[in-house]
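In this section we walk through a basic example: taking a raw amino acid sequence and producing a predicted 3D structure, encoded as discrete structure tokens. The instruction is simple. Fold the sequence below.
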Amino acid sequence: MPGPKQVPEPWHSFLTELDQRATIETRMDCIGGFVVTALYGFSRETSDLDVLLITPREQSAPLLELGAHGGNLHKKYKVYLNYAGVAKVPEDYEDRLREMFAGEFQHLRICALDPYDLALSKLERNIQRDRDDVKHLARSISLNLEILKQRYEKELRWQLGNPEREDLTLRLWIEMIEEDRSGIAAPR
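The resulting token sequence is shown next.
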């Protein structure tokens, strides 16, 4: 499975300053483009680090304030933390978290959702960038489509506001991945 060798800049400097603000070991559960690029090697720009959860809770407000869009670190590094607490993710995602830069920071533990949970976190929004990220994940780690479907059915579908729409979206994603794997261009 792909993985980062080191924290890329400007993220390293940004996260180092957040680490210095943290007073105890703090886990940040991350989703989005940062994870797709830094952990799974997708070459695309991203200026935010989408954070689903910061724990323990008392560390959340100071870190989000320091790293917020428009805040001091954003002005300095042109990247920022984005609290994504409303994102829908598979129920047991925490059991499958992966630490991205183990040992790099004194207090911060930057954790990523596993590739199936990460893909499913993009299902409701489903913009072109999300579909590109999912296609990259399917290529880079050879997503098992049965695992993707099972996890959706068991851990995510019941949380969604419009599950029938997301059923269709998932079916279309699976078709997209199968077409990509077979080398067939999808009709436009």
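Looking at the output, two observations stand out. The chain has two domains: 11-113, 120-182. The two ends are 32 Å apart (CA to CA). In the next section we compare this with other chains.
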